[in-house]
Amino acid sequence: MDFKISIPRVVESFLEKPSVSVLIKGKPGTGKTILALSLLAMIRKQNSFYLTTRVNAQSLKLAYPLVMEKIQSNQIIDASRKIFTLQAGETPPQFIGYSDKPTFIKQLYQKMLEEEDSLIILDSLEGIQSLLGENIYYELFELQRETGSRLVFVSEYEERKELDYMVDGLILLRRVGSDDNFLRELQIIKLRGTCLKLNTYPFTLFGGVFRHFEPFQLPTISEKKAFQPLPDTESHFSTGSKDLDEVLGGGYRKGSTVLLEVGKNISREAYFQIVVPTALNFLSRGKWVMVVPSLGTSRENVLSALSNFIQEEGLNRITIVEKKWGLEKLYKSTQNLLEEFYYQFEEIFRKIEPESHFASFGLDSLLVEFEGNLAEVLEAILYGVQKKRLLALFIIKYGANGIDKVANMVDYHLKIEERGGVIIFNSLKPKSTPHIVEVDYAQGYPQLELTPIV
Ligand SMILES: Nc1ncnc2c1ncn2[C@@H]1O[C@H](COP(=O)(O)OP(=O)(O)OP(=O)(O)O)[C@@H](O)[C@H]1O
Ligand SMILES: [Mg+2]
User: Which fold has domain 9-212?
Assistant: First the structure.
């Protein structure tokens, strides 16, 4: 797993401006300290400091090891102890005593003068206030004006307070949703003098580092290469994605059926990312793929998602079954038609080799074609898939009827949704935590990446 630190670019650039002040607010456990330390790890090193009030420098290393690795010990100013003694093996952090306000202010002032343009992160404001009294920020702003340094306050409360109006930038961290399906969001409430294109970014604290996500976008590929398949096991087909295999506990069981529920505002490109790696994995391993496209998806859409990443020969192992909407006569008679497919069901399943096929069905297309008989058709598919140990996936779009019915029939129930432009993946059966969907093309073919939201 890759523990990449990232923070919205606008926030980073804002903190590069001279003499700015930013307030980071959020309830307990929303990631304020991880954001503050991640900021420190990303921003110019020598003149940025983190002043800790609640937790001493040594405990910071234990609680946030990955981000602390990227921070030099002299960037941590320990204001958590009245009397400072060095413990065995401890490298001395900077130390500011808080025995009284004037001493504290004097020491901080010195620090600000030592380094030009210094950035000081105070975690937390309440910590300092409980030691040195309310409204200490008046003095801190004064020091800032005097020295031109930059200040970041961390505050443990969400409510609006006077300080909200005084700072140049205000950032709120939130945890939204229910306990077993939550998202973390960084909301930029203001950044004076900055034009904001986006003000809310989902993020994760996975690994104890801060990582934000930009709206989903397919990367451009410079050179397309053949898909490198992942191995199946005795009992499971690989999904073609290491991350998805892991989430599902080793891939899709052979002979199983999957429901992929596609939420509002999800583009075809986006939901294809869940299905395409599995199709490519089958094709690259000499197996077959059968597709009944969803309404609005053409055979060209399907082929163009697959053809660049497999050998020419593999194209012969893709069957696309379509309804032609009465336009059959315009097409060559060799096309596979949905009606025929249905009438030849038994025949098809009889001929199929065990463990040889991945079939993807747009449930809306089946519904239009078979209406009242849908349950019967699904049962026939389920039966065939089980018997021949194949894999079938049904795609159902937002707003469709009967999701629950289908969900009860299948072995896996996956769901993708959009939040602030980011695609969130959830496995409802088996239960997983939500993940952020990204696609990496670094190897020349699509690799689906899922990062847990924790
Ligand atoms: N290694 C880790 N892996 C996954 N999540 C982690 C890890 N370390 C911390 N977290 C998550 O980060 C949360 C705490 O983050 P952080 O300490 O930054 O919050 P905070 O807003 O500063 O809280 P407080 O108000 O208590 O100071 C934890 O509740 C936990 O969910
Ligand atoms: Mg904290």
Answer: Rossmann fold (3.40.50)
